[in-house]
Design goal:
The chain is α/β, with parallel strands linked by helices and 227 residues long. It folds into 2 domains: 96 residues; 112 residues, Nitrogenase molybdenum iron protein domain (Rossmann fold), CATH 3.40.50.1980. The chain is built from 6 helices and 11 strands. α4 crosses α5. Bound molecules: NADP nicotinamide-adenine-dinucleotide phosphate (NAP).
């Protein structure tokens, strides 16, 4: 088994399995890798918002004749007390903030934070694992570097300390980054929540527990076909 990382995080968390890092070079590069390494199965466990690598994995798996299992955790559902505005894209999130200046907690990662330069009237607190480079051009921006999981109490403190008016987040699902959503609920703050694109067809699992028997099944089917 090999775990593949994109290589974006400067100091990735240690993993209990062999790790490779860096892009494959598109669909063709990935297909070559799959053949060279005699890979039997791809488990696409990339982030719910990492769409390109998922599309590449589907296409390369098909070209190399091996199955792909999409492991994608479920998104969060709205609970009592949540004040969510659901939007389909980062651009729509920028617009949803409106014209009136607000204090925004921007917790969508560093790659798309620059989109908020389009709304420079707001004050931003940007949190990411690695620095936002280049930084935003908007005039009033603070940055925090931090890696989850984030506890609810600490998130409440953070939102209070920065006098946050609104949280912008992706509907990533999972526990590690849910603290900010709960903190916003506790403080009665609105959340602009960026939703995922439509899911692709194929083999899917929402949890590791659900994925394991499917992995066995897909590998056994491959062996039967002599793949
Ligand atoms: N997007 C997010 O919100 C988000 C949040 C947290 C973590 N992440 C993680 O950060 C990584 C990059 O995210 P992204 O949104 O930039 O991805 P993306 O747009 O789907 O992928 C861009 C390119 O990065 C390379 N790549 C991505 N994931 C890879 C992997 N696991 N192993 C090898 N190469 C990979 C591929 O390059 P080649 O075409 O050269 O193969 C891919 O074409 C992903 O692994 C994702 O799980 C993303």
């Amino acid at each position: 088994m090999t775990l593949s990382l994109a290589g974006r995080t400067l100091d990735p968390a240690p993993q209990p399995v062999p790790v490779r890092s860096g892009g494959f070079g598109g669909v063709q590069g990935l297909e070559t890798y799959l053949r060279d390494e005699a890979v039997d199965l791809i488990v696409d466990a990339t982030h719910p918002f990492a769409r390109r690598i998922s599309a590449n994995a589907g296409a390369a798996g098909e070209a190399a004749g091996i199955p792909v299992l999409r492991l994608e955790r479920f998104g969060w559902d709205e609970s009592d007390g949540d004040r969510w505005t659901r939007v389909p894209s980062v651009r729509a999130a920028v617009e949803a903030l409106g014209d009136v200046p607000r204090r925004v907690f921007l917790a969508i990662g560093r790659q798309e934070a620059k989109a908020f330069d389009a709304a420079p009237q707001h004050r931003y607190l940007v949190r990411s694992v690695d620095p936002v480079v280049p930084p935003l051009d908007a005039p009033d921006v603070d940055y925090i570097l931090a890696r989850g999981p984030f506890a609810v109490e600490a998130e409440v403190e953070l939102l209070k300390r920065h006098e946050t008016d609104v949280v912008v987040a992706k509907n990533s699902g999972g526990e590690a980054t849910y603290g900010k959503i709960v903190a916003a609920r506790i403080l009665g703050l609105p959340v602009v929540l960026i939703e995922r694109a439509a899911e692709s067809d194929g083999n899917r699992a929402g949890t590791v527990e659900e994925a394991l028997p499917l992995i066995d099944h897909l590998l056994a089917s491959g062996r039967k076909r002599g793949v």
